[in-house]
Amino acid sequence: MIGVVSKAMAARRASLELANVSTEAKNTALLKIASAISKNKRALLRANARDVGDAERLLKRGRLSRAFFHRLKLNDVKLRSIERMIESVAKLDDPIGRTFYAKELDRGLELYKVSCPLGVVGAIFEARPDVLPQISALCLKSGNAVILKGGKEAKRSNQALFKVIRDATEKAGIPRGWIQLIEARREVRELLGLDEYLDLLLPRGSKQFVKYIQENTRIPVLGHAEGVCHVYVDERADLNQALEVCYDAKVQYPAVCNAVETLLVHRAIASRFLPGIAERYHEAGVEIRGCERTRRILRGIKRATERDWRTEYLDLIISIKIVGGIEEAIEHINTYGSKHTDAIVTRNRKAALRFMTGVDSSSVMLNASTRFSDGYRYGLGAEVGISTGKVHARGPVGLEGLTTSKFYLLGGGHVVATYLGPSAKPFTHRPLPKRWSDILRGLEKT
User: Fold this and answer.
1) With b meaning 16 or more CB within 10 Å and e meaning fewer, what string describes 66-92?
2) Angle in degrees, CA 286, 292, 298, rounded to 5
């Protein structure tokens, strides 16, 4: 059995080759992955069915949450969605080799800042087998090797998807070893110590899980701990529009990080709006917990506690608070939110601007469901995760978040001494119209 260190070393070697693979070769490999998933659909669903069967027994014993269970399932629709996601990544512009700026330092001395891959990415995620092809596709397109660790509940699904992706890409000429899979929990601890081989870690899971990763490695970590998302219904909201947005944000798929957890409602429209949304929620099986003012309008609902304002339910539960105005809504979100995604429903442009600039979150919506906060929906092809931090990448992280940059300096025997001392030659620091791709074409011809 190949150890974690050996896999990390193989990934590092492959990453150096993959960084120079052409856009055409990467796109061809991605399309072969999508085709292979379609051809191997039955085998993938059989593997997933075994995982789901085991998980169902755990669910009945109360050892697995319903939200966790639903994330585990694959079906024809999900597999086709995975295929479309991979195909969409193939259609995206290559993020590698882009020129951020080109500058003449002096005649014959030219500087280029160019995008390049990070190197080796480690992705550690819980029981969502669709995450594996998402991250793999984005890493391949951005020229990064990847080491994958999925949750034990999806072990067979992950093994099957990994094999399909590895075989399809190696046949397409992608460097062998660019994609690796580890499975044991002890291997995660070992992986966290391999900062000489890994350049970035992408954890996806519970708050406790992400925190554990962040606190036990020297490798940079990109991700979010939780998604405590809000919708604020302003006094100038179109109430029919607000009903649809609030319903979709909670009910469409409650087990994900961009589903709304707390609804804030302006006191001026609370008595008109809350009965309608409560009826819609009741029909969908949503449990409502409310502040005291909400409970006076919606009789019989549970009382929301301080803990509810900080809770990511990932289930058909929502807390509701009536607020005095937009400033109270903003203060509540910035106090209790997780800087993930928050929305306002209003026809008042000043209120919209105040909310969108005042809420300190990675995505802020106007008259739209929080469920739009997603790499695929944002046109990023897919996402490796959502980052609520402010360093390197923020919000849904697609191809751009998996790149860094390097400087290329082209000279003709230039030395620093020329630009020092009493007779120092001045730098020109003149912008250049050329891009790095122009330079490469010139070098290839010589």
Assistant:
1) ebbbbbbbbeeeebeebbebbbbbbeb
2) 45
Both tokens of residue 238? 């179109």
Which phi-psi region, left, alpha or beta, contains residue 99 (left: φ > 0; alpha: ψ -120 to 50)? beta
Closest CA to 404 of 415, 393, 395: 393
Region at 173 (left for phi over 0; alpha for psi -120 to 50; beta for the rest): left
Pairwise CA distance, residues 146 & 325, whole Å: 47
* 3-class state of residue 65 by DSSP: coil
Residue predicted with more confidence, 388 or 165: 165
All structural domains of the chain: 4-222+393-403 (3.40.605.10), 229-378 (3.40.309.10)
Mean local confidence (pLDDT), 238-254: 97
Q: What is the pLDDT of residues 36-66, one digit of tens each?
A: 999 999 999 999 999 999 989 988 888 887 7
The stretch 411-438 carries a mean pLDDT of 94
Beta bridge partners of 106: 109
pLDDT at 446: 63
Running DSSP on this structure, what letter comes out for residue 93?
P
Checking phi first, is residue 337 left (phi over 0); if not, alpha (psi -120 to 50) or beta?
beta
Can you spell out the DSSP letters for 225-238? Answer: S---EEEEE-TT--
Per-residue pLDDT, 1: 63
Q: 371 vs 167, 175, 207, 383, 401, CA distance in Å?
A: 34, 37, 19, 14, 21
One-letter amino acid identity for 185? R
**Among candidate residues 148, 239, 229, the one with its CA nearest the CA of residue 188:** 148
Separation between Cα atoms, residue 261 and residue 308, nearest integer Å: 9
Is the pLDDT reported for residue 127 higher than 80?
no
Put simply, whether the predicted model's pTM sits higher than 0.85 gets the answer: no
Q: What are phi and psi of 103, to 5 degrees?
A: -140, 135
* Spatial separation of the C-alpha atoms in residues 76 and 74, rounded to whole Å: 7
1-5, 180-184, 331-335, 437-441: range with highest mean pLDDT: 331-335
Strand partners, 323: 266
**pLDDT given at position 225:** 66
What is the Cα–Cα distance from 445 to 16, expressed in whole angstroms?
24
Would you call 354 helix, strand, or coil by DSSP? helix
Contact predicate 126/51, CB 8 Å = no
